[in-house]
Amino acid sequence: MDIRNLHRTDLCNPEFRTQFFQLLQAPVLDEELALFCFEKRKGSVMTFVGIGDVGTEDQDMPIATVSVVLERKFLRGGMAYGHIEDVNVSPNHRHEGLGTEIMTYAMQFTKRYCGRVVLECKPHLESFYQTHGFITHSIAMRQQNEKPNKPNFSREIKDSSTDDKETDPSTDNPSTVDASTERELALNRLALKAKTVMPTLIQQYCLEKTEAEKELTRREFLTRRRQ
Ligand SMILES: CC(C)(COP(=O)(O)OP(=O)(O)OC[C@H]1O[C@@H](n2cnc3c(N)ncnc32)[C@H](O)[C@@H]1OP(=O)(O)O)[C@@H](O)C(=O)NCCC(=O)NCCS
Hints:
The structure is a single chain. Helix 2 packs parallel to helix 6 (about 180-195) and helix 5 (about 155-165) crosses helix 6. The protein has 2 domains: about 1-140, Gcn5-related N-acetyltransferase (GNAT) (Aminopeptidase, 3-Layer(aba) Sandwich); about 170-225. Strands 1-2-3-4-5 form a 5-stranded mixed sheet, sandwiched between helices. It starts with a strand and ends with a helix. The protein is α+β, with helices and mostly antiparallel strands. It contains 8 helices and 5 strands; from the N terminus they run βααβββαβααααα. The site of coenzyme A (COA) has 14 residues, from strand 4 and helix 3.
């Protein structure tokens, strides 16, 4: 299994997107909403995916995932706390060590950037997380809200694309801009608008990636663009 961060382009691939949301045990979002959420999360959530090996039926598809939510504290000079979320391995691959593998990868990330790492889990997984150095501390509490106000995503996306037409000179002449480019611009504009909690840590992480990793990402991007 190859582990890397989730890319925006992954969510443009219908098969990848479907498998990713199934992995999360969440409803499958359409491309537009998935990209919108991706942009909103950018800067404060690092999502890692484990990709199936070449030559297997899961080749290039996500089979494991974990997210680290970065929270900048006011304490200790603005230290970051990491929250481990959405640890999932495909039901076809459980007990093969992949959960351990992707957690180890996420913990390497948190070791570099977070002063403290916390998570919430079911009692039967206590020992799984203990092997990654977690100790049981405090109790977890939660409150479920039945009918929270849903953010009006489609309205926000629409508003943002209208804003683009007014402010972005490249969209002044719609006849020269095809629909997908226009939507790309709208989504890019959203990325700028999204209130990010901690862009610098994520940027730092991306900058610290090795040249080989960057080349791999670039090649993968170009391959997907060609498909
Ligand atoms: C929990 C989960 C991520 C573990 O992934 P995995 O790839 O199966 O884990 P590993 O193969 O690395 O397991 C290593 C060890 O952890 C322990 N472990 C893993 N899953 C466990 C479970 N469901 N119950 C109890 N112990 C478990 C076992 O000791 C296991 O060793 P074993 O396979 O020899 O029994 C996976 O079962 C999963 O996706 N579950 C559904 C989603 C979920 O509950 N996520 C956690 C949210 S907090």
